[in-house]
C-alpha cells in the first residue's frame, strides 16, 4: 500500500492550519499596530493644535476692533493735518490685503525670534505688510476726535524709532492663556512712549478714504473701543524656525511652517501655499 499520497495530504492540511493561525495572529497584530498609530497621530494633532492657539513672532495677522468690527488698516494715503505721515484707519472689509500686519521685535531688540510665542506684557512692533511702515504714535492730534494721532512710520527698511513700540496688554478676565497672547483673547495695545491705548471711537473719514474709521491713541484704557482680537492671518508655528537669528529688519518672507486662519475666503491676498 502506497502511503505517500496520504502523508502529503496530511502535511498539506497541517501547513494550511498553521498558516491560517499565523494569518489570524498577524491580522490581530496589524489591528493593534494600526490602533496605536492612529492614537499617536491623533495625540500629535491634538497637542499641536493646543500649542498653537497663541500669536507668535513673525506671524502676519489682521487686528479686529471689538467695539466697531473694523480691521486695523493702512495705505499710501497721508494725513492732511498733524504729522502728514501715512494714515492708519479701520475698515469693515475682511478681505482687504492692506489690513495685514507682521509681528516684529521691538525697536530695542527684545529677542522676539520667529516662531516665539508672544507673551502678555511683551513689547513689539507691527509692520504694515504692504508698505513696510510700522504702527506708530506721537503727540500730534488725530484729525477728527483730536485724540493722539496714530500713523504708519519708518524708512524703506522698516526702521523708525521708539514711537513704533507697543506693549501687549491681555484681558485675563476669561482665565487661561498661561501668560501668552491667545488668538481668541481680546487684548489692548499700549503705546510704549506715551502710555496711550490703540483705539477706535467710531468717527468716520470723508474723501478720499470715505467710510473708514479713525484710529487714535487714548488714555485710561479707552473702554471697549481699545480692545482688539487677532483675526485672519498666517501664524508661524512655535519653534519651527528657532534657528532664525531674530525678527530683525523689515520682513523678507521665507517658507515657514504656519497655520492659515481666516473666514474661508482667499484670506484677502494670503494663500495657503506657503507664499505671501
UniProtKB/TrEMBL annotation:
The record ties this protein, via CDD domains, to:
beta-trefoil_MIR_SDF2_meta
Write down the species. Answer: Macrostomum lignano
Question: What Gene3D superfamilies does this protein's entry cite?
Answer: 2.80.10.50
Q: Which UniProt keywords apply?
A: Repeat, Signal
Q: Which PROSITE patterns does UniProt cross-reference here?
A: MIR (PS50919)
Instruction: Please report the stretch or stretches of sequence annotated as the MIR domain.
Output: 52-106, 115-171, 178-233
Does Zinc-finger appear among the keywords?
A: no
InterPro entries per the UniProt record, alphabetical? MIR_dom_sf, MIR_motif
The regions listed as transmembrane in this protein's record are none
* Record has Repeat as a keyword: yes
- The name of this protein is MIR domain-containing protein
